[in-house]
Amino acid sequence: MPAASALARTRSSRPTRVAVPSPWVTGENFTVCDPYLFTLTRWLKADGVDSARFAKVHAHMLLMADRPAVQRALVDEPR
């Protein structure tokens, strides 16, 4: 994960400019891209990167976390 941290530090504004048009990654419809971005965003924390630095990405993570299927999956996820 160190690469994710380095990328986040060097390109701190880019993900917010290009990612998450609204409310989902590809626009108005939920697609396979959304759980993928959610997973990547959750990995940032383990690498010491605060996703709140990227407002749109962080908002997407919170939106995903509100989905009942995501909540069930997180409960079942091994730690």
Brief overview, please?
The chain is an all-alpha fold.
Write structural notes for this entry.
The protein is an all-alpha fold and 79 residues long. The chain is built from 5 helices and no strands. It has helices spanning 2-10, 14-18, 33-46, 55-65, 68-76. Helix 3 crosses helix 4 (55-65). The chain is globular, with a radius of gyration of 13 Å. The two termini are 17 Å apart. The mean pLDDT is 81.
What share of residues is helical?
55-70%
First-last Cα distance: 17 Å
Strand content: under 5%
- Computed Rg: 13 Å
SSE arrangement, N to C: HHHHH
Sequence-ordered SSE layout with sheet pairings:
Elements: H1 2-10, H2 14-18, H3 33-46, H4 55-65, H5 68-76
Features:
single chain; 79 residues; mainly alpha; 0% strand
